[in-house]
Amino acid sequence: MSALAPALEAIRARLGQRGLSVRIGAPTADVDLSIWPWQLVLVPGPRATPIGGGTRAAFDPDRLALELRFLLVCKDADDAVAKLTLAHAVIVQAPVVQVDGVNVQVVSETLAPADLSALFAAAGIKLSLSSAYVLRSTV
Question: Is the whole model's pTM more than 0.70, yes or no?
Answer without folding.
Answer: yes
